[in-house]
Each structure stands twice: as structure tokens, then as C-alpha cells.
Amino acid sequence: MSGHHKYMERCLELAAMAKAAGESPVGSVIVKDGLIIGEAIEQSKTLKDITRHAEVMAILDAIGKGYQLAGATLYSNVEPCMLCSYVIRHHRIATVVFSKACGELGGTNPKFNLLTTNELASWGDAPEVIVL
């Protein structure tokens, strides 16, 4: 099993936990230097806050532990949406790996490609995007 698949398996475990809690089945993991530095499940319904997507919560988890995210890899079983893409870009995460597209709200949607555009100089280069 490749490194990417190992971390995606953890996302799927987290997604199952989210589903069991009545949330959308999304899990996210942040990895830096081969270590999981943050992870989370979707919590929008539980916390009654639309911003509590798994990716944002994983980023907050890593930041809360004192980690810098520049150069890290974010894994999610679902493509980060535009909201999550903004947060990913702000923290200069270098690589994003996901396994399922989320459609018109996805950060790689060509019409609103917040995750992949290089047109916003203040964010620097777009992260590498890997779809498993």
C-alpha cells in the first residue's frame, strides 16, 4: 500500500465515524514529514456551523498543536470545496490528495478553481492535486 493510500484509508475510517455521528461522511488528515499532524471528521451538523468541514477541522487540529502547515499534505476522501480550498491555500499546504470529486462546489472546478489557480499572487503556487 502506497503512502497516499495509507493516509486515504485513515480518511475513510474518519468518514465512517462522521457518518455514524449523523454527519456527511468526510474525513481529513494532514501529514508533514511522514507524520499525521492533524485529523478530523465533518462536524457541520453537530456544531451547527457550516464552516466545520473535515478539512478545516483537520487544519485547526494541526494548528492547535503548534504545527506550521506550509509544505504539508492534506488528504480527504472528498474533494475540498471552495471554502476548504481557501483555507488550504491560505496555509500554503503543498499537496492535496482526494478520492471523490464534489461537483460544482469543488475547489478544482474550472469555473471557480480556488484550489488550483495560480492567478492569485498573494497565495503563491497552487498545491499539487492528486486524485486517487
TrEMBL record:
Xref: PROSITE patterns: CYT_DCMP_DEAMINASES_1 (PS00903), CYT_DCMP_DEAMINASES_2 (PS51747)
A molecular-function term among this protein's GO annotations: zinc ion binding
Record keywords, A-Z: Metal-binding, Zinc
Domain CMP/dCMP-type deaminase: 2-109
Gene3D superfamilies documented for this protein: Cytidine Deaminase, domain 2
Keyword Iron: no
Pfam families attached to this UniProt entry: dCMP_cyt_deam_1
Record-linked PANTHER family: CYTOSINE DEAMINASE FAMILY MEMBER, RIBOFLAVIN BIOSYNTHESIS PROTEIN PYRD, CHLOROPLASTIC
Protein name: Nucleoside deaminase
